[in-house]
Amino acid sequence: MSIPFQIVVCGSIVPDPLQTLEPVTGSGAPSLKNEMMLPAVLDPWAGHALFEAAHLAAKTPGSKVWLVSLGPKAKLQQVMMMVAQKAPFELVALDGPASGFCDSFETAAALASAIEAIPGLDRARLLLFGGWESASRGAGSTLQMIGERLGIAEQFQGVDQLTVRDDGSLEILERIEGGQHQVSVCAAPPAALGWATGHLPEPRNNPQVGMANMRTIMPALQRSKPAPLPATGLCFASVSLPKQQRETRIVKDLSPEEIAREIVAWVKED
Amino acid sequence: MENILLLAHTETDGTLAKPALEALTAALALGGELTIGLVGATVQPAAGQVANAGAVRILAVCGDAFAAPRYATDAAAAEALARASGAALVLAPSTSRWARAIPGAAFRLNGRVDTHATNLAIRNEVPAVSRWFYRQRMEAVLTRAQRPWFVLLDAGCCEPWSGEPGAATVELLPLEVPATRTTVTGVQSPKAGEQTIRPDAKLLFVAGAGWTKKQSDGAVHGAEAEGLIRGFLRAANASLGSSKSLVDMSGEGEAVLNFMSHLNQIGQTGATPRHAKGLSTCCHGEEPHVVGWRFITQRRAVNLDANCGWARGKADVLYVADAFAVMRAVNRLMA
């Protein structure tokens, strides 16, 4: 038995991981140098959540996927042009900062309000998806707070696999210490799942999916509500880049046996 | 200094694991009045373990319902302990169990939470947390006005507290088990049946995609690569990390190293483990060398490119050599 799911994926944008990032501190919260100029991508873990949501929806007829995203409207539009070709979804956009220096409490409040305002959302069939952490703040706390605001007490983090069983219950594998998975069974939705990488590769671009998505994405961006995220009470004393440069000794004239001896001695020393 | 609550969950034998004792060290260093809050099926062994740590109270939520890690029960237990202690600062180790549940408990108390803290110290007479942002690319020190302030401390940032065990009085909190639709059914080990992720290992061995590429004879030597890597992991008792490209290849159905999964990935969308030493082989990307190696103290790399921009400046030693030949010789010497 498979009931259709209402899958809401929370995911924002982050600077392309290949970009060099530099913090800027001023009177307010820190930010990134030239933040609005940096190319952005969908947060990688949120991307995994979106692809898993689309995969589940495709296997479960009648299911629907929403992507709720908080970020600067112009940057969201750029990123959605790429993401739209990957999976079918309906965008719910919030116009606000996507900075890693924002607080998860305020972010959760804004996202939960946006989810509550989705017309016709059946909360009894709701699966709340997101990345278990972001590549910006990396807090791993936003999804739990959204879940709390929506009254969802069945929550899972570091999810790598979701299986809908014959009786409609959900078997979930969560990452735990030592490279193992904890296996849980949740009797039914609603549930919140913070995804790790899952098992699905990134879908190929599908222009037809992109065309269909863009019909709803542009209006969603136009009606996106401002979400300023005040970060009251949070004060950054310093933000700095680590000293990364090491003096690397390049060894290119030793035989493999000589290198091996050096490595083994190094491995064995305390 | 404000009152502090240290939250710790017990292991299956009722004791506290190393991350909890590390968090205890951090809590004691702050100097405030300390309460210890324990959660688990049984807590008396843990209470005895920390009886002489100097806590003014030891509170506990215990019972079979709190044995397995589960959001609903863990969040309720953490909430009850925080309320009972009245602590302004709640410190807990960043285990998968607390990382799942603590943000929800913080929300219920209208508090705030900071995770992946690497340091907690008094700065201008208030507690200040150090943590990394943008995947370990920059480090910030922050303070908060809101209370209670929940802080999850990453493992390996403090020495574990050690002291003589003793007799402890535990105040058990009566807590009604919250309704839940979730049943924890067990733990699943890696598919290959061999543990390759060892957080306590001294050495992290990082394998890059080069292991699965054509070698100088024009052929791919996947089976030999598996044998060499597994042999070294066993001999050195090392933990295995991987570049994203290598584990992505397995997700895309290409012939790769069968024992490798996304769990091994370090760097982008992977882990940033803490080990004393790191040896990377056949890696050429930024992520393994910069993000994945952030907390690796001594770093060495083996690859064929003397000008590898990510190994140079990030590794202490770069061996320009064929990793197959080197690891064959290493395994012979380690045998």
What does this structure look like?
The complex is a heterodimer of chains A (270) and B (335). Chain A has helices at 44-59, 73-83, 104-116, 142-149, 207-222, 256-268, and strands at 6-10, 13-15, 23-24, 31-32, 40-42, 64-71, 90-95, 126-131, 155-164, 170-176, 180-186, 191-195, 225-226, 234-240, 249-251. Chain A is α/β, with parallel strands linked by helices and 270 residues long. Chain A has a single domain (6-226), classed as Rossmann fold (3-Layer(aba) Sandwich), CATH 3.40.50. In chain A, strands 11-10-9-12-8-1-6-7-13 form a nine-stranded mixed beta sheet, with helices on both faces. In chain A, strand 9 and strand 10 (170-176) form a beta hairpin. The radius of gyration of chain A is 21 Å and the shape is globular. Chain A starts with 5 loop residues before the first strand and ends with a helix. The relative contact order of chain A is 0.18. With 335 residues, chain B is α/β, with parallel strands linked by helices. Chain B folds into two domains: 4-172, HUPs (Rossmann fold), CATH 3.40.50.620; 203-334, Rossmann fold. Chain B has eight helices and 15 strands. Chain B has helices spanning 18-30, 44-49, 71-85, 96-108, 222-236, 244-251, 286-290, 323-334, and strands at 4-9, 34-40, 57-62, 89-93, 112-123, 126-133, 138-144, 149-153, 171-172, 182-188, 203-207, 239-242, 275-281, 296-303, 317-320. In chain B, helix 3 packs across helix 4 and helix 5 runs parallel beside helix 8 (323-334). The mean pLDDT of chain B is 91. At the A-B interface, helix 1, helix 3, helix 4, strand 9 and strand 10 of A face helix 3, helix 4, strand 5, strand 6 and strand 7 of B.
